[in-house]
Task: structure prediction
Amino acid sequence: MNLYVGNLSFDTDEASLRQFFDEYGPVRSARIITDRDTGRSRGFGFVELEDAGAALKAVTELNGSELDGRTLTINEARPREPRR
Result:
């Protein structure tokens, strides 16, 4: 299951994001979305956990928690809206 993680610190890297979710089970991927021009974090990312039940538990327990001094918004990722 793919999770959206918002309000990330610009200092958070993919390794620390992966480690933050590790206790909920195997993490397939952890990606921080970066600005195409500057390469700087855009303040959000996605974490994919192998087990859907573990992912839902992570949403429940981690939404509103703190990482690198920022309060995170975590929920199930929704498909991207088509561009117009």
Summary: Residues 2-76 form a domain with the Alpha-Beta Plaits fold (CATH 3.30.70.330). The longest strand covers residues 41-49.
